[in-house]
Amino acid sequence: MGNILKYLYPARCPACREIMEDDSIFIHPGCRGKFSIITEPRCFKCGRTLQEEDGDICPECRKKHHSYEYGLSLFKYNETAQAAMIDYKSNGIRRNGDFFAEEAVRVLGRLLKRINPEVLIPVPISEQRLHERGFNQSEYLAKAIGDALGLPVDSDVLFRKKGKKDQKKLSGSERMKNTADCFWTVDDMPYKRICMVDDVYTTGSTIDGCAKILKAHGAREVGFLVIFAGEMI
Question: Of 30, 50, 73, 78, which residue is least crowded by CB atoms under 10 Å?
């Protein structure tokens, strides 16, 4: 059965989408450069690359107050990244998620271990999205990263409410309003130091919404790790 499935659904490179001759690796070595790793120095808040004159915080993050303490971002959200994320999130190609998690551990793992969160908490998705996709893409990433780094993952303390608009279709200010009161959590928060895990960061409104509700219920420090950081809207 395994060989039949490999024949029907061969492993493909997340960058070029061509079949992998060696399916023990996740990407063609020559395609690795198509994903643009965010280089140091990084903004402590959003994880994007800093300019020399920026200090520790980028100009965009200085303009607004974020409820979270830190951010770790892996890749720039270029065309290759967008296509690979669509394949992962919408087309169910979970090998792409395995690649993203492996790279996150390789590039950001040591830094995350130094920060030493008590737990990784995936950003929740709505029941409708869960039904459509069959899985929470952020939870899948969190579990793969947590397994590799020996960090616990808890998907049962933060939840998304119904009835909110699709963030992709909104402007930056609209995203902030849309995520207000978008999440809810348990009354007795068991964690003080939390690292959220999500797929894409743009304005930070989703992470802000999560951080606010987690802190309102007892968390002291909330940061995040994301696979892609998009351009500010």
Answer: 30
